[in-house]
């Protein structure tokens, strides 16, 4: 490394004694006492040395004096323990003579220099000087003291290799002379930080305030964007309604010609002529989930050709039904009493199946019903009660007078869900059949799912023709129902047509065929719910659908007729329940992925409901 030009030269004993004689004079010591700006003093010392024939700079003189003072105080402190320690300082006596009267002040100066600052001496210079001093003879005189000749020193830095405990001067370098380092007075002062004087609590408080302000700005802008989007959607919806009205007037003028009577036997199904009118371009956003479709099919019981009107509304089809669902949802007000927004009864729950009735009952509550009753067997009651304290559990389904016990509660119920966890024991199926019959007499909406569909497949007359009945089969249950009603294998190539035929065979009963897209039909109209869900198919999703459908059915049938715009309330309720279930599935899958369960989906009911029906 290169040592600074003002610190890298060795001092001979003759130069050192000359420096001490000048530095120890009374006028010099007086000028140094209490004066921190002493550069002019050392300039005078350097000039006096120059007159004696020694060419030294003021900085070299100052650094040499500080080094001697440090060695002196170290030797003086060591002499307290060992009287011979002062011999390690070659100029101890001279320093003792000069500093004996001002040792306290000088000791503070040395301590300040040792701590650090702009005037701290380099260790390389000190080690170099100590190395030179160790080569002096024992008498303290150097070999050239007898010849007072002015010593010439190079004016450029000398490269010195530092290693271990000593430094050795290297070969003289031809580098140009470097300027001395700038003093502390010439250095630019660092600007203070803006919040340097603030405490951590105030900094955190300021940070939180700025974060909240930024968040408020974001939500305000997002709300404005949503308002603009809602306004645009309403305008598009109004235009589509106008187009539908115009097309309705056009098709109303079309009359179906009566066919001539013939002696040929009529086919087992009604031939249909399709007239498809596209009203909007289908959405190309997601190929896996085709746009929602609304099919208005007009059927005639008489033999002859029938015109089926199939309107493809593209991605806006679901938006046309969602407002009808919103019209049926009761508002939350403080003027209502408990139970007014829905008291749902779940008929099911046995020793083997306790989760299904719980999922159905808790889903009805989460959607917005006020009370959920579960009528189950005695073995299942303690387990279902342990799941949640919000449910009212009646352990009467397997009792001898089960029908009479449950019938007492029917006047208080707004809808009944039959099948979740029911099982297939003959006694339980018999009791469920009687409960369905007595619910029909009171005009209570009946939703049948799971094992309740097994009962319908065995005895279709239990629900056939009841306009407030809704069936929610999956594909296997649908196949069983279709073959039981038509006595022929199911044609799986056209699910919509098969679902429509089964609904007609059951007396225009509302049917919800669950699958990749949910098909909802009452034999006259077909709704297709293709709300995006997920590929996760865990047990219990059908119970979420049936439980929420119990609440939606009560709201739809208790709403004014103009709320559904003339559409079958069962279709509106079924569409709302299927849309909500698929949205819950989608949101839960985004959070839990492959680990998604029905419990995760139930936790998403509130946010999914707001997104679909309250945004």
Order of adjacent strands in the largest pleated sheet: 3-5-4-14-13-12-11-10-9-6-7-8
Sum up the overall morphology in one term: elongated
Amino-to-carboxy terminus distance = 74 Å
Q: Main beta sheet, described?
A: 12 strands, mixed
Please identify the oligomeric state: single chain
Average pLDDT level = 78
How many separate helices?
20
Helical percentage: 40-55%
Stretches where pLDDT is under 50 for at least 5 consecutive residues are 1-7, 103-108, 110-178, 180-185, 256-316
- Tell me the structural class: alpha/beta
Over all CA atoms, what is the radius of gyration?
50 Å
Task: Describe what this molecule looks like in 3D.
The protein is of the alpha/beta class and 615 residues long. Helices cover 46% and strands 11% of the residues. It has 20 helices and 14 strands. The protein has helices at residues 13-23, 26-32, 39-51, 58-79, 92-99, 103-115, 123-134, 200-252, 317-328, 355-367, 381-387, 402-407, 426-441, 451-458, 475-486, 495-505, 541-558, 569-592, 598-603, 605-614, and strands at 160-163, 166-169, 272-278, 293-297, 306-312, 343-347, 371-376, 392-395, 415-418, 446-448, 469-471, 510-513, 518-521, 525-529. Strands 3-5-4-14-13-12-11-10-9-6-7-8 form a 12-stranded mixed beta sheet, sandwiched between helices. A two-stranded antiparallel ribbon has the order 1-2. Helix 4 crosses helix 6 (103-115) and helix 15 crosses helix 16 (495-505). The chain is elongated and about 130 Å long. The two termini are 74 Å apart.
